[in-house]
């Protein structure tokens, strides 16, 4: 069967393409410019990618077109697809019908931490010998790919609340019908499709309605909006974790190092084991606990899950170390929301102490570009000693107000070449620099690395 995927460059659709290829289908796709890691993964899988959205790519017609949610009415390929009567479906629907059906689905939902928690969960199941399939919106270092199809009954999926397709405005995750569901947190995001946070809560409630009574919902009890979701109706046992209203009952983490590199798992106030690992931040310790509880529901004993965490090597572009050059330590992070920015910087600050911490931010997500979070950005960047804010020409609002709120510690730059030059000149040995963008950032991390290397004198 020939499957053609529109919008194949996204992490979800690109992963879907790899699953379809592994299932034995002929797979092709189309998108705009691609960048790693998805471009390299598709090339490694032997999947041909057409550049652009012209109708010629549908001649001869494929057996089925899988439509990504970046597609919209008016695009030539979409109009040709409809006019010619070619069979089409959405990515989440294809996944549900061709991969998830009959499997034990473990889904991870929430505004933040989905990719890391899903990667942790897949790693724990793998360590336990369960060989799970997975589809994750990032590349776990332990696997090297964002999607995998196996014969195992277990399948881990990152459950995104974004809408499904131009013809299906439900959230993606309502298609997945998980037996094990992780609810990590809930904040306002995706302002391009949701009018308010209550609309997102309704979609999460629809997801909760799909979990069977013999399943399990692992929920963050510290999140009031998630508590509100469950209060709308819940027919499934829950495993709450966190500190809110639990007293000594339930599950929680206790940091043994301020940077979160060592922590303890508590159940009903009693220690169930300790973890030493490479990740940073209290938020990641919470992600680990959620993954442990989900894996436990699938039959992985807690001690075995704890053992797995010490060998977890992180996820590409989630505070990923890019190495050190000229005495400057570089990191790449997929920051897209003020909360994610703040927790990433706070975790790194706890690790580096008094060393100079530099944040370089591109406000690229749809919600960021709409200016919804502009009043929260300055506070999110407070842990950084210096912040460089990239102002794209088409952003539509000025970052000057954010810089003003931060004072002399912040600088706005609208030209990437100048930004490279300024960073190359101003960074000094001992600095820790975090590049924050949910896109390619114009290749900025590699360009700054080259500029630092070219200095030669280490100053």
TrEMBL record:
<comment type="function">
    <text>Reutilizes the intact tripeptide L-alanyl-gamma-D-glutamyl-meso-diaminopimelate by linking it to UDP-N-acetylmuramate.</text>
</comment>
<comment type="pathway">
    <text>Cell wall biogenesis; peptidoglycan recycling.</text>
</comment>
<dbReference type="GO" id="GO:0071555">
    <property type="term" value="P:cell wall organization"/>
</dbReference>
<dbReference type="Pfam" id="PF08245">
    <property type="entry name" value="Mur_ligase_M"/>
</dbReference>
<keyword id="KW-0436">Ligase</keyword>
<keyword id="KW-0067">ATP-binding</keyword>
<dbReference type="InterPro" id="IPR000713">
    <property type="entry name" value="Mur_ligase_N"/>
</dbReference>
<keyword id="KW-0131">Cell cycle</keyword>
<feature type="domain" description="Mur ligase N-terminal catalytic">
    <location>
        <begin position="2"/>
        <end position="100"/>
    </location>
</feature>
<keyword id="KW-0133">Cell shape</keyword>
<dbReference type="InterPro" id="IPR050061">
    <property type="entry name" value="MurCDEF_pg_biosynth"/>
</dbReference>
<feature type="domain" description="Mur ligase central">
    <location>
        <begin position="108"/>
        <end position="295"/>
    </location>
</feature>
<dbReference type="InterPro" id="IPR013221">
    <property type="entry name" value="Mur_ligase_cen"/>
</dbReference>
<comment type="similarity">
    <text>Belongs to the MurCDEF family. Mpl subfamily.</text>
</comment>
<keyword id="KW-0132">Cell division</keyword>
<dbReference type="GO" id="GO:0005524">
    <property type="term" value="F:ATP binding"/>
</dbReference>
<dbReference type="InterPro" id="IPR036615">
    <property type="entry name" value="Mur_ligase_C_dom_sf"/>
</dbReference>
<dbReference type="GO" id="GO:0009254">
    <property type="term" value="P:peptidoglycan turnover"/>
</dbReference>
<dbReference type="InterPro" id="IPR036565">
    <property type="entry name" value="Mur-like_cat_sf"/>
</dbReference>
<keyword id="KW-0547">Nucleotide-binding</keyword>
<protein>
    <recommendedName>
        <fullName>UDP-N-acetylmuramate--L-alanyl-gamma-D-glutamyl-meso-2,6-diaminoheptandioate ligase</fullName>
        <ecNumber>6.3.2.45</ecNumber>
    </recommendedName>
</protein>
<feature type="domain" description="Mur ligase C-terminal">
    <location>
        <begin position="317"/>
        <end position="439"/>
    </location>
</feature>
<keyword id="KW-0573">Peptidoglycan synthesis</keyword>
<dbReference type="Pfam" id="PF02875">
    <property type="entry name" value="Mur_ligase_C"/>
</dbReference>
<dbReference type="GO" id="GO:0009252">
    <property type="term" value="P:peptidoglycan biosynthetic process"/>
</dbReference>
<dbReference type="InterPro" id="IPR004101">
    <property type="entry name" value="Mur_ligase_C"/>
</dbReference>
<dbReference type="GO" id="GO:0051301">
    <property type="term" value="P:cell division"/>
</dbReference>
<keyword id="KW-0961">Cell wall biogenesis/degradation</keyword>
<dbReference type="InterPro" id="IPR005757">
    <property type="entry name" value="Mpl"/>
</dbReference>
<dbReference type="Pfam" id="PF01225">
    <property type="entry name" value="Mur_ligase"/>
</dbReference>
<keyword id="KW-0460">Magnesium</keyword>
<dbReference type="GO" id="GO:0106418">
    <property type="term" value="F:UDP-N-acetylmuramate-L-alanyl-gamma-D-glutamyl-meso-2,6-diaminoheptanedioate ligase activity"/>
</dbReference>
<dbReference type="GO" id="GO:0008360">
    <property type="term" value="P:regulation of cell shape"/>
</dbReference>
<feature type="binding site">
    <location>
        <begin position="110"/>
        <end position="116"/>
    </location>
    <ligand>
        <name>ATP</name>
    </ligand>
</feature>
């Amino acid at each position: 069967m020939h499957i053609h995927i529109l919008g194949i460059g996204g992490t979800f659709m690109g992963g879907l393409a790899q699953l379809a290829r592994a299932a034995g289908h002929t797979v092709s796709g189309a998108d705009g410019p691609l960048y790693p890691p998805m471009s390299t993964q598709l090339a490694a899988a032997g999947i041909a990618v057409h550049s652009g959205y012209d109708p010629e790519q549908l001649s001869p017609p494929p057996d089925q077109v899988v439509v990504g949610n970046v597609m919209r009415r008016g695009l030539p390929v979409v109009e040709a697809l409809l006019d010619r009567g070619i069979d089409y479906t959405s990515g989440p629907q294809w996944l549900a019908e061709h991969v998830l059906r009959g499997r034990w689905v473990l889904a991870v939902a929430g505004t933040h931490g989905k990719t890391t928690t899903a990667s942790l969960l897949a790693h724990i199941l793998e360590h336990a010998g369960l060989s799970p399939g997975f589809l994750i919106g990032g590349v776990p270092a332990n696997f090297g790919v964002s999607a995998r199809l196996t014969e195992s009954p277990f399948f881990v999926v990152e459950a995104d609340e974004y809408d499904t397709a131009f013809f299906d405005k439900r959230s993606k995750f309502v298609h997945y019908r998980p037996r094990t569901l992780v609810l990590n947190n809930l904040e306002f995001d995706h302002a391009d499709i949701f009018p308010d946070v209550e609309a997102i809560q309704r979609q999460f409630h629809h997801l909760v309605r799909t979990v069977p009574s013999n399943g399990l919902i692992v929920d963050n009890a510290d999140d009031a909006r998630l508590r509100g979701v469950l209060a709308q109706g819940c027919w499934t046992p829950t495993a709450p974790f966190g500190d809110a209203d639990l007293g000594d009952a339930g599950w929680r983490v206790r940091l043994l190092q301020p940077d979160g590199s060592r922590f303890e798992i508590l159940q009903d106030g009693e220690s169930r084991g300790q973890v030493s690992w490479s990740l940073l931040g209290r938020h990641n310790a919470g992600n680990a606990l959620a993954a442990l509880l989900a894996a436990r529901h699938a039959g992985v004993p807690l001690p075995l899950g704890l053992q797995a965490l010490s060998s977890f090597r992180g996820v590409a572009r989630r505070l990923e170390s890019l190495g050190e050059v000229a005495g400057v330590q570089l990191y790449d992070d997929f920051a897209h929301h003020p909360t994610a920015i703040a927790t990433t910087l706070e975790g790194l600050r706890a690790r580096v102490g008094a060393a100079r911490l530099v944040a370089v931010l591109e406000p690229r997500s749809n919600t960021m570009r709409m200016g919804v979070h502009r009043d929260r950005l300055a506070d999110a960047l407070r842990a950084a000693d210096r912040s460089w804010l990239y102002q794209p020409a088409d952003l539509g609002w000025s970052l000057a107000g954010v810089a003003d709120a931060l004072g002399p510690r912040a600088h706005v730059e609208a030209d990437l070449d100048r930004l490279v030059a300024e960073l190359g000149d101003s960074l000094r040995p001992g600095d820790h620099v975090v590049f924050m963008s949910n896109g390619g950032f114009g290749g900025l991390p590699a360009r700054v690395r080259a500029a630092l290397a070219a200095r030669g004198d280490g100053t």
